Amino acid sequence: MTSDNYVKIFDTTLRDGEQSPGASMNLEEKLQIAKTLEHLGVDVIEAGFPIASNGDFEAVQAVSRQASDKVVICGLARSGFADIDRAHEALRDAPRARIHTFISTSPIHMKYKLQMEPDDVLDAVYASVEHARNLVEDVEWSCEDGTRTDRDFMCRTVEAAIKAGATTINIPDTVGYTLPEEYVEIITMLMNRVPNIDKATLSTHCHNDLGLAVANSLAGVQAGVRQIECTINGLGERAGNAALEEVVMALKTRQDLMPYSTGVQTEEITKASRLVSTITGFVVQNNKAIVGANAFAHESGIHQDGMLKRSDTYEIMTPESVGLNESKLVMGKHSGRHAFKEKLKELGFELGQNQVEDVFRRFKDLADKKKDVYDEDIVALIDDEVVRGDEPIQFASLGLACGSEEPPQSTLELDVEGERKEVTTTGDGPVDAIFNGIKELIPIRPRLQLYQVHAVTHGTDAQATVTVRLEQEGRTVNGQGSDTDTMVASAKAYIAAVNRLMQKLEKTAPSALSA
After folding, report:
1. Separation CA 494–CA 498 (nearest Å)
2. What does the domain layout of the chain look like in residue ranges?
3. Fewer CB within 10 Å of terminal CB in the chain, N or C?
4. Any bridge partners for residue 453, and if so which?
5. Rounded CA gap, 431 and 437, in Å?
6. Given strand 393-401, what is the order of strands in its sheet?
7. What is the band of 208 on the pLDDT scale with cuts at 50, 70, 90?
8. End-to-end CA separation in angstroms for the chain
9. Interval 274-287: pLDDT, tens
10. CATH fold of 3-280, please?
11. Which own/partner contact pairs does 385-388 have at CB distance under 8 Å and 24+ positions apart?
12. Distance CA 473, CA 485 (A)
C-alpha cells in the first residue's frame, strides 16, 4: 500500500455518537472509550464539543491529557471565535490537536438556521478557519449539509477554507440525503474544480437516514476521499452514522475493488463494540453487520452444510478477524484474582483496583448462583461497575411479593446521596411496583420511554440485561442493569438511567450542533 491509498479513520463516537437520544456518557466512561479507540488504532478521536457544556470541555481536556502522540484529538467548534478559542483551550495538552470548525452552507440552512446571506457565510468560513489555524496546525473545516449545498457555492467555500489554512475538508451528508453516485459526483467535482484541493485531505461524514451511510462513505473513498468519519456500532443521532466496523471491514475484505488500508487493528473491533454498547446502553441488534450476535451464525441447512465443508462458502471474513471468539467456560467459583484480571484484559477492559475488587466480588457471587460463567456474563458484570461508578443513587436491596391473587408489592432500599432510604409500593406488575418505588425516592420525575429485557447467555439461569430509557424536559438517557434476577436488573437499569438523567439535566447545550 502507498500513502495515497491510506484512509484515515476519524472516530466521532464521543461527540456525534453521544448526540444519540439516551447515549449520554460521563467523564470516566469517555476516557475509557478514548483509550479503547486509541488501542483500536483510529487516527483521529473527536472527543467532544467543548463549548457545549463544562462537562464536554472537561472531557475533551481529559482525553487530550490521556492521549499519546499516536492519535489526533479533535474538538468541534462552530464558526464563532468563542467556540474556537474554547476548543483550543480544551485541546492544549493534546500531543496532537485538531480544531474542527463548521458552518452550514445549504440554502435551507443558511436561510432558516443561520439567517445569513451566502457572502456572509463565505466570510465566516475564511475568518473561522484562519483563526483556528493561528491556534493549531491541524484544522478541519466542514460545510454542514454539504450534500444539499449549491455546487458552485461549495467550491467557493472549500477553496476559501483551504486558502485560510484548513488541512482537512469534510463534506458531510448531514441529513443522510445523498446516494453513492451523487456523492461520487460531488467529490469528483471538487477535485476537478477547486484549484488548491491538493493541499487538503478530503473527508466523508455520512448519516444513515436512508441506510446508505457506509455505502456513501466507501463511494467517497473510491472518488478520492482519504478520511472517513464514523462511530462504533454506527451510533449517532436519528438513524446514526457510518459504522466504523463496517467501513473498515469492507475495505479490508474487498481489496480487489478497494485497494486501500487503514490503521485499525480489526481484531479489537468486537471489544470496542461491546464497551460502547455497555456504556451507552444501546444494545447491538442481533443481525447487525460485523458485530451482531448473528453476524457469524448459520441456521439454514444449506448454509450449515457449506460451512462444514469449507467456511468461506458462506463466510467472507473470519470471526477471529474482528476479535470474536467462541464463548468458552474459562472462569468458575474457584478462579482467583490473577486469572480474573487476565480475563478482564482479554475482554478489553481496564479497571481501577477498586473496580476490579468490586467486579471480582460480584463474579464470585454469580459463580455461586450460576453453573456456567461465560465471557458475556463477565461483560455484563462489568457493565454495572463501569456505568455505576460513584453515582449519587445506588441500589441496595429489593423484596417483591407478586402473583395472581394480590397486587404486586415492592419493598426497595436505595442509597440516595449517601443516605439509606426505604419504600414499599404497589403497581400493575412487579416492574411497575419497583419503578413506582424508585420514583418516590428520587428528586426528579422522568417519563419511561423504553423497557427492554434480553438474556446475556442461554439457559434458565442466564443473567438478564435490562435497558431503560427515561425522558424529562426534552433530555433522554439510557440505563442498563444486569442480574440473574430480572427484577433486580430492572431496578438497577432504572437507577442507572436516573443518575444519567440527573447529570444531563445539569448540562446546557449550545444553540446549534453539527450533524
Report:
1. 6
2. 3-280, 296-323, 337-387, 388-505
3. N
4. 466
5. 10
6. 393-401, 409-416, 419-426
7. very high
8. 32
9. 889 888 888 888 88
10. TIM Barrel (3.20.20)
11. 385/351, 385/355, 385/358, 385/359, 386/29, 386/32, 386/278, 386/279, 386/349, 386/351, 386/355, 387/29, 387/278, 387/279, 387/281, 387/479, 387/480, 387/496, 388/496, 388/499
12. 32
Query: What does the DSSP 8-state code read for residue 148?
Result: G
Going across the sheet that includes 464-472, the strands are 447-455, 464-472, 475-483
SS3 508: coil
Retrieve residue 85's grid coordinates: 478559542
**pLDDT tens track for 136-169:** 999 999 999 999 999 999 999 999 999 999 999 9
Question: Among 40-54, 62-76, 291-305, 469-483, which stretch is predicted with the lowest mean pLDDT?
Answer: 291-305
- Residues 65, 72: Cα–Cα separation, whole Å: 12
C-alpha cell at 6: 491510506
C-alpha cell of residue 174: 448531514
Burial of 215 (0-12, 13-18, 19+ CB in 10 A): buried
Q: Decide if 39 contacts 67 (C-beta within 8 A).
A: no
Q: Can you tell me which residue has the cell 438511567?
A: 497
User: How many alpha carbons lie under 13 Å from residue 110 in its C-beta half-sphere?
Assistant: 19
Backbone phi, psi, residue 70, to 5°: -85, -15
Q: Are 63 and 90 in contact (CB under 8 A)?
A: no
Q: What is the chain's Cα-based Rg?
A: 24
Tell which CATH architecture fits domain 388-505.
2-Layer Sandwich (3.30)
Give the Å distances, CA to CA, from 386 to 2, 25, 200, 280, 391.
40, 11, 39, 11, 11
